[in-house]
Amino acid sequence: MFYREAGDFKTSYRDDGQTFPIRLDRWGYYALLAVAFLVVPFVIDSYWANAVLVPFLIYAIAAIGLNILTGYAGQVSLGTGGFMAVGAYAVYKLMTAFPGVPIFIHILLAGGVTAIVGMLFGLPSLRIKGFYLAVATLAAQFFLVWLFNKVPWFYNYSASGQINAPERTFFGWAITGPATSASAKYLTCLVFAVGLAWVARNLTRGTIGRKWMAIRDMDIAAEIIGVNPLTAKLSAFAVSSFFVGVSGALLFSVYLGAAEASEAFGINKSFLVLFMIIIGGLGSIFGSFAGAAFLVLLPVFLKNVLVARLGWPTDLAAHIELMIVGGLIIFFLIVEPHGLARLWALTKEKLRLWPFPH
Amino acid sequence: MEFLYASEVLINGLMAGVMYALVALGFVLIYKASGVFNYAQGVMALFAAMTLVGIMEGRVPFAHLLNAVFGMHVSTLGWTVPAAFAILLTALVMVGLAIAIEKLVLKHLVGQEPIILFMATIGLAWFLEGLGDVMWGADVKVLDVGLPQGISDTVETVTNDLLGYGFFIDRLDIWASVIAALLVAALVGFSQYTKQGRAMRAVADDHQAALSVGISLQFIWIMVWSIAGFVALVAGIMWGTKAGVQFSLSLIALKALPVLMLGGFTSIPGAIVGGLIIGMGEKLFEYFVGPLVGGATENWFAYVLALIFLVFRPQGLFGERIIERV
Asked: Membrane spanning segments where (chain B) (predicted)?
């Protein structure tokens, strides 16, 4: 009944290799997309948009980006926050310098700028690896945030040192700025999230993705069988940074509207996104979404239960949240290193065989 | 005068470097003995300092939580504990913590890739930070265990007489250097001349071989994490006395990371030399270049220096050569 392959015949390799090989799964995916695009924008209110859905979509993009680098190419990065800041400041400079160009192009260009910066900081990865590299990426994090704080050109010499998103419209719809409606914010982020997830999925299962995974599994062996580590590692850094940059641009321009480098893009952002992919599942696009959903919803859930229901002080709830997140990281690493994505895959396996265990 | 001022900056940098090295030492110990790169070392220092203040002031652990859940109004137990005794109690707490970490985390992660263990310790860092805040409250605490503080008058008068320029050096920094030197001597003595220390080095060299000659891996790990906890306590006391016990203390771990990269993860002398280079380098860089680029270069200088250095020598100054085979 559910998830049956019986009667679902494949007659070509193309069919066999598709992302959702089981018919029910595929229809489920289309249905989800249809609901996300055609139903949710009409019923969404600003609480749901601002507290849950928009941050979820933006962090999902960042998580996909980091997952490409860490989960697929095996290069641990703690510089995500810094690269998100590059995206945010790039889109800000572009928005204010070329007001006439549509914001969508600016966001993509901001991703491109971040890709270049990411490649620059990815260069050392050719010599150093493992946690030496993880620590080296912290250099990117601290240096970039410092740069955006100290060089007034980046924040257009504003007195507060903050950047504020001016209003930009797309076919008469406000996409950024204070007047933006909840559904416009949501739809903008949704378009980017779905589009980029599609790109990521297809990149990771093609030649380039195979190269990344070969490098991840054993870089020297990969080099021997003909994978060029230079191009593989730098392309991973570039693609990953592009995604992270787009997410940073969206975070600033669509979601926050105003940002200050050290506050919005501090080291904790880097860890947050890293935790998303650990909990969600390393090396999985679905896992990036699952992890982002989990870590966006957890504080909302705790706030509703601990603060609103039980009446505990807010700071206590925040500290307990730290404990829960830290504990969960350890729990997942011990029990299920492939995260929620693996649990989901297991459920599907079980469902396919149900009610027979073998 | 310019030169003298620069050398004062240099000496202060060296002193700061000693403080970084103190934290870095804890990293090196754990890395050597278990191959775990313990990101939580800085939070352990924070946790130790919080516990020390909590015990000294007789605070009720989890007071905040108890008040919220049971509607109680407790804050202190009404007594104070002398510093020496409180340090002893805190050391015991750190041993307990080491046992808990071994039982709950490390035991289950034997044989995993180093990077997985690294990420587990990041999780541990968040957990401990939350636990520390829930246990002792997140307020900024003053830590005073009787270490001398403030500008040393002796150094100032002596240098003033000799050079005609008084050096301003914090007495706490001098003490920290002395204590760090003692600590390193004790650690080296322990690992060279005791049975347990030898077992520890054996485990560091080869887990499997150590197991096969009858060394208990579990015991060694608990011991190493306890020692690291003790080093964290010492670092926590120093930094806590200097800057108050608060969240930013855990960030010194982030300062210790470039120190390690520069010195090499596996070398105790490396941690010290790395600490001195970083401490000195960042103070001098801030002094000479800082004003040209808007200051606050201390945030990133250590990392960029370590990054550039690593490109030329990936294992750090004193690290073991990385040999890879397919």
From this structure: 12-31, 36-56, 76-101, 108-128, 174-194, 215-239, 259-280, 287-312
Closest Cα of chain A to B174: distance in Å? 29
**What is the Cα–Cα distance from A49 to B325, expressed in whole angstroms?**
51
Q: What is the mean pLDDT of chain A?
A: 88
Is the distance from CB of A239 to CB of A196 less than 8 angstroms? no
Interface of A with B in 47-106 (CB under 8 A): 76
Q: Considering only the C-alpha atoms of chain B, give the largest distance between any 2 of them, rounded to a whole number of Å.
A: 65
Which residue type does B172 have? L
Mean pLDDT of B185-207: 84
What was the pLDDT predicted at B287?
84
Residue A2: per-residue pLDDT = 63
Compute the mean pLDDT over every residue in chain B, rounded to the nearest whole number: 83
pLDDT tens column, A175-232: 887 878 888 899 999 999 999 999 999 999 999 999 999 999 888 899 999 999 999 9
This prediction's pTM: 0.88
Quote the pLDDT of residue B322.
67
Q: Collapse the DSSP code of A174 into the 3-class scheme (helix H, G, I; strand E, B; otherwise coil) and give the result.
A: strand
Take residue B324 and report the two structure tokens written for it: 């890879």
From the list B65, B112, B324, the residue facing A316 with the nearest CB is B65
Q: Kindly calculate the radius of gyration of chain B based on its CA atoms and give it in whole angstroms.
A: 21
Percent of chain A surpassing pLDDT 70? 98
Q: What is the rounded distance in angstroms from the CA atom of residue A26 to the CA atom of residue A21?
A: 7
Cβ count within 10 A of residue A272: 20
Closest by alpha carbon to A102, among A168, A58, A164? A168
3-state secondary structure of A170: strand
DSSP, collapsed to helix, strand or coil, labels residue B22 as helix
Nearest to A323 among B131, B138, B261 (CB): B131
- Residues in chain A within 8 Å Cβ distance of B68: 310-313, 316
Cβ contact A316–B125 (<8 Å): no
Mutate to test the interface with B, among A153, A279, A316 (most CBs of B within 10 A): A316
Q: Which residue has the higher pLDDT, A335 or B75?
A: A335
Per the CB < 8 A criterion, the answer to whether B31 and B227 are in contact is no
* Alpha helices for A127-181 (secondary structure H): 130-150
User: Which residues of chain B are within 8 Å of residue A324 when distances are taken between CB atoms?
Assistant: 130
Chain B interface, mutation test: which of A67, A69, A138, most B Cβ atoms within 10 Å? A138
Q: What is the CA radius of gyration of chain A?
A: 21
A305 shares contact with chain B (CB less than 8 Å)? no
d(Cα A47, Cα A195) in Å, to the nearest integer? 25
- Does B37 sit within 8 Å of A131, measured CB to CB? yes
pLDDT tier at A358 (50, 70, 90 boundaries)? low
Establish whether this prediction's ipTM goes over 0.90. Answer: no
Mean pLDDT along residues B185-213? 85
Which SS3 state, helix, strand or coil, does residue B59 take? strand
Cβ <8 Å between B326 and A138: no
